[in-house]
Amino acid sequence: MDTPQQPGTGVTARQIRDTVGRSWWLILLFGVFSLLFGIMALVNPLAAGAGLTWAIGLLALAEGIAGLIGAFGKNAGVSRGWMILYAVISIVFGLLAVANPLSMAASIAAVTGAWFIVSGVMRIIWAIRVRKEIDNEWMLILGGVLGIVLGVLLMMAPIAGVLVGAIWIGAGALIYGVLQIWAAFKVRKLGAS
To answer: What Cα–Cα distance (Å) separates residue 15 from each residue in 19, 26, 188, 189?
Structure first.
C-alpha cells in the first residue's frame, strides 16, 4: 500500500522519507565540521577569531566587487555615487581583513566597544527622561551602565574581546555539531525503514 501524496506535488510521503534518509551523511558531515570548528575555537580561540574575520573579509570583498559591478548597471536602485562609495569601502575592508585578520578582528572589537559605550549612555539618558512614565527605570540605567563597562573593556582589550567571542562561537558550534550528528543518525533510520 502506497502512502498518500503530498498535496500539489505528486510525491508520496514515503518518497520524501527515502530521499531525506539517503542524505543523512550530508547532515553528519555538516555536524562533524561544526564539531571540529567548535573544538578548534575552544583550543585556539585567537586563530578562530582571525579565521572568522578572514571569512568576513572575503564576504566583504565579494560584496564590494558585486556592488561595483551593480553601480554601473541600469537599475542600481540607489544613487550611483553612494553605491560606488559603499563598494569601495567594502573592498578596502575586505582587503584589510584578508591581509591581516587578527588586527582587523581587534579593530572590529574596538568599534563594537565604542558602540556599546554610546548605546549605554543613550540608554541612561532615555531612562532618566522617562523615569516618571515607567516603573523600575533603574533596570534600564543598570543596562546602560553595563553597556558602558562592556564597551570600555572591549576598547581597553580588544584581543580579549575577540578571544571571548571566539570561545562563545566555538561552544555554540560544538553543541550544534553534536546535535547535527545525533540528527544525522536519526534521519539515517528513515532511509532504512
So the answer is: 6, 18, 14, 14
Q: Tell me how far apart the alpha carbons of residues 86 and 163 are, in angstroms, rounded to a whole number.
A: 29
E strands present in the chain: none
Helix (H, G, I), strand (E, B) or coil at 12: strand
The residue type found at 105 is A
C-alpha span between 7 and 10 (Å, rounded): 7
Other beta carbons within 10 Å of 125: 12
Size of the chain, expressed as the number of residues it contains: 193
Q: What is the pLDDT of residues 12-70, one digit of tens each?
A: 777 766 666 667 788 889 889 999 999 999 999 988 888 888 988 898 899 899 888 88
| Cell matching residue 25 | 551523511
